[in-house]
Design brief:
This protein has 255 residues and is mainly α. The chain contains nine helices and no strands. Helix 6 crosses helix 9 and helix 8 crosses helix 9. The chain is elongated and about 115 Å long. The termini are far apart. The relative contact order is 0.07. Keywords: Electron transport, Heme, Iron, Membrane, Metal-binding, Transmembrane, Transmembrane helix, Transport.
C-alpha cells in the first residue's frame, strides 16, 4: 500500500480561504436604515450619556439635597415624601382602588404589570420598522405610560402640603437643659418629661418645649386645660409649682 492511498480531504466552509481584516460593513447603500454598532452607534450613546451625566452633576452642585432633622422612629405623625421620580407611585397609592385594603394592587400588581410590559415589549412588537409612526402599538403604550407618569407626578406636587412638610422636617436648634433646676425637678415629679422628653425635645405624643414663643401664662393655661393630645388636668402641682415650671420652660423659648 502506498502512503496516502484511501485518504479523503474534506473542506470546512467555516474556515475562510482568504482572511479579511475586521472592517465594518458599508451601510451607505441603506441611509437611515441601520449603522455599524462600533464605533458609530456606541459613540452616539456615549455622547448622549455624557451630556445627561454632566447635567445631573450640575444640578446636584447648584441645588444640593435639603437636610431635615434627625429621624425620630417614635414620631408617628411624620409623613415621608419620596424622591421626585417616585412621586407618581406615591400619588397612585392615595386613590381608593390602590390604598387601604387594596394596597397590594397599587404597590405590587400595577407596577409589576408595567415592568412586565417592558420586559415583554421586544417579544410583542417584533417589526423591523424604527420610525414611531410605523409602530403604533409600542408608540401608543409609550405615550400612555409617559402621560400617566406626568399626570400623577403633577397631582402629587400640587396636592401636597409643602408648608406642613417643611415644618415637620425643619431642623430646630436645641440646647442642653439644666436638669438640676427646681423647675426641671417639678416637671419630672408631675410626669411631664414622660411625653416631652428628658431634654424637652418632645416625642411621638408631645411637642418640644424648646423654641415655643409662648408666655408663661399661655404655658400655664395649656398645662391646666390641655390642648390637642394633652388632656385636661395632667399637671397635678400647685399654682406656685406651675409658675416655677412655666418660668423654667420660658427660658428655652425663642429669643
Amino acid at each position: 500500500m502506498h502512503r496516502g492511498k484511501g485518504m479523503k480531504f474534506v473542506g470546512d466552509s467555516r474556515v475562510h480561504a482568504v482572511r479579511h481584516s475586521n472592517i465594518p460593513k458599508d451601510y451607505s447603500e441603506y441611509p437611515g436604515k441601520t449603522e455599524a454598532f462600533w464605533p458609530n452607534f456606541l459613540l452616539k450613546e456615549w455622547m448622549v450619556g455624557a451630556v445627561f451625566l454632566i447635567g445631573y452633576l450640575s444640578l446636584t452642585v447648584a441645588h444640593p439635597s435639603p437636610l431635615e432633622r434627625i429621624a425620630d422612629p417614635t414620631d408617628t405623625g411624620y409623613i415621608p415624601l419620596p424622591d421626585w421620580y417616585f412621586l407618581f407611585l406615591y400619588q397612585m397609592l392615595k386613590y381608593s382602588y390602590a390604598s387601604g385594603p387594596y394596597t397590594t394592587i397599587g404597590a405590587f400588581i400595577m407596577p409589576g404589570i408595567a415592568a412586565g410590559g417592558l420586559l415583554l415589549a421586544p417579544f410583542i412588537d417584533r417589526g423591523p420598522e424604527r420610525r414611531p409612526i410605523k409602530r403604533p402599538f409600542a408608540t401608543g403604550f409609550m405615550l400612555l405610560a409617559l402621560a400617566s407618569i406626568i399626570f400623577l407626578t403633577w397631582e402629587s406636587v400640587v396636592n401636597h402640603d409643602w408648608e406642613a412638610a417643611k415644618k415637620q422636617g425643619a431642623i430646630v436648634k436645641t440646647v442642653a437643659v439644666d436638669k438640676e433646676a427646681e423647675g426641671y425637678q417639678l416637671m419630672q415629679k408631675n410626669t411631664c418629661l414622660t411625653c416631652h422628653g428628658d431634654n424637652l425635645q418632645g416625642g411621638a405624643a408631645a411637642p418640644t418645649l424648646q423654641n415655643l414663643s409662648l408666655t408663661p401664662e399661655e404655658i400655664a393655661k395649656i398645662a391646666r386645660n390641655g390642648r390637642g393630645a394633652m388632656p385636661k388636668g395632667v399637671f397635678k402641682g400647685t399654682d406656685e409649682e406651675l409658675k416655677k415650671v412655666t418660668e423654667y420652660i420660658t427660658q428655652y423659648n425663642k429669643k
